[in-house]
């Protein structure tokens, strides 16, 4: 099958885990991706569901082989991905999951589907979120400054992260504080907690307004806070150095887009406004 989609890329080096879209050099050099990178499902006890995950190789010359596996996952207080062995966490759904095939070999510019079968047990102790990750692992050579292989090989993992939400459940995010950094102009730090049993998916915009109320700058907001979790969310406001001297207001239009208690309709999340003085 010819690869025709855009793929999100998550890379795990030999010792460092990063949750971010890979840089252009990585994508261009190795060109491995997974789609979708995040799956949200509502389930009931005894449910059987299926999800297709597509692993793709957008490289024009290299054939890449990957081994599939399951893992538990969570996010730390900075929003970074943490992987655990399957079944090790309280909200693990790894034992409910089977997948096929167990490995894939991708010729250049091709992709392959991996079928994930989910069979929820009839008795589930906790409502709310349960999680697992489908991992695709490969060994790839490190490149030197000239873009040639250096002889050092690293292990890379692509992750498709699953949220399985049993209803009734609640997502209850609250921004407990929002401050501007005194050292770094334009750096906003939010402290967010979620007392619900389902994750919160926060999306919105930070709006910089001048003294007349006109919007002179916008920065997108996007954060996930897991059930029962806390999160430090840093926002680097864009183009703050271009503002003329004066006093500005930063307002926040923030919404929780995952609200099972509200029939999944987006709900507003209150964030206090900030004053910013440009010199």
Could you describe the 3D structure shown?
The N terminus is likely disordered. The chain is flat. The chain has two domains: 143 residues, Immunoglobulins (Immunoglobulin-like); 106 residues, Immunoglobulin-like (Sandwich), CATH 2.60.40.10. The strands form four sheets. Strands 2, 4, 5, 7, 9 and 10 form a six-stranded mixed β-sheet that branches. Strands 13, 14, 16, 17 and 18 form a five-stranded antiparallel β-sheet that branches. With 279 residues, it is mostly beta strands. It has one helix and 18 strands. It starts with 23 loop residues before the first helix and ends with a strand.
Roughly what fraction of the amino acids lie in strands?
Answer: over 45%
User: Tally of extended strands?
Assistant: 18
What is the count of structural domains?
2
Question: Going by CATH, what is the homologous superfamily of the largest domain?
Answer: Immunoglobulins
Q: Based on helices, strands and strand pairing, what is the structural class?
A: mainly beta
Helix tally equals 1
Described by strand count, sense and barrel closure, the largest sheet is: 6 strands, mixed
Query: Runs with pLDDT <50, length 5+?
Result: 1-29
CATH architecture of the largest domain: Sandwich
Order of helices and strands: HEEEEEEEEEEEEEEEEEE
Rg estimate, integer Å: 21 Å
Distance between the termini: 56 Å
The name CATH uses for the topology of the largest domain is Immunoglobulin-like
